[in-house]
Amino acid sequence: MPRGAAPYAPYPGMPSGNVSSGRGLWLLAGMGVALGTLVLVALVALLLTRSKQPQLGKRQTQHAQQTQKTSTPAPPTPAHAGTNPLPAGASGPQDQPAAPAAGQQNASVSQQEARQFAQKLAQAFAARDVATINGMIDWDALLARAIQGIDLPRAFRQGMEDGVRKKGLSDMVRNLGSKGKATFLWVKQRQGYVTVVFRYVTEKMALSYLEFMLDRRQGRVVAVDVYNYALGGTVSQLLRRSLAGVTQHLPRGALSRLLGASPSLLEKHWSDYQAAVLAISRGDYVAFNAAYRRLPEELRRLYMIQMARLQLAARSTNSAFFLEAYQDFVRYFPNDPSLSFMSIDFYLLQKQFDKALEHVRKIRQVVGDDPYLDFLEGNLYLAKNQPDMALQKYRSAIAKKLDLPVAHLEAAAILLKRERFAELANVLHQLVQQHQAVPSNVENLLRKVAPVQFRKFQQSPEYRQWRQAVPQPAGVP
Q1: Domains in the chain: ranges and CATH
Q2: pLDDT at residue number 417
Q3: Residue 254 pLDDT level (bands cut at 50, 70, 90)
Q4: Rounded CA gap, 305 and 299, in Å?
Q5: Within the chain, how many helices (H) and strands (E) appear?
């Protein structure tokens, strides 16, 4: 994936990126930054558990299935149940449970309670307080949703549940880094649940939106699942898909439903399948790709394999890896809801900026009118060499009170290069006042962007007025 060359940090805690480089700030290679590791931790635990078990004959296997497996009870829901199938074309579970019946809503959580939950969650994200975040999720309900209707061997089920509870959303918090941000946007409805939607931007500017589905448990409001827009599924769905790694110890019908492939085929190619999954856990795309190419077509097309391949390729510096992985994913899952997120990267690499813009608009239709999407559109217009349109989008993001300073910085860079100093001084004033940017850091950044124009700006009355209006904070050199 393309990377920016020169990081900036005009104020403490600000995300890093590039100003007016035409690349780097709109990267959406975040398919797995939030939940990918959570999904895989259960699968790796299952693989390791399997590797320690002796191979069983057919009669022994049948006996083990009868004596060791446990049937998962239905999860608690807001007094309703239904179905929530995967997108058309997905090779994953086709019986995702626990969606409420059509027309019903969970009235047990009020709008005020949802906002209070969101405010507490936002504070926990800001403090990187993993314990508080994990404590706001009913993991029992989430896990029950993930494995409802599937007979799992006790050891496999316990390993998965223990791994998920221990890990929780710690990787989501870790991937924010020191400069990323999770921002509460609004309250919505999903599958009859009251939900709170967060924008999730890592310090490397990878983007997703997270929708926490709320319910009441023992008198308190908790999240019973989390929908990740960039991954096109809830945590429970993603965990359910991860069960594609469970072996012949599952009943044949359940395995067939989860995989879309015969159990005998998986067993025949188990060593390569295991090598691929372990490479995923290590983040080793080269090793994964080698194992992937040894798999037959029926196993390659598994949803978990294809999504993991995209996650690894998106983190790679080799653009060809991502392009190939994206094209295969589209071929296998043309209707997957996460496609708009990954399509922006794909069309950006292809320099098809209009198509990338189309997918930003599609995301807006699904998510809502988030000002960060105006910022992304500005970056794409800048890459398209249309600075006037880019400036318009940056101004729109600023007017909508984007809570990150990136739009101010990009707008300032354009205005500086065009020597529109009065407008530049106004944008810089807003940047310092709204985002506590350090003036000297901002100046150093702009000096690098356009040194000749910056010297002219320093000599202008607009510059003097700006510096007098926003003096350097105490203690800052």
Answers
A1: 36-315 (no CATH), 339-344+353-469 (1.25.40.10)
A2: 96
A3: low
A4: 8
A5: 24, 7
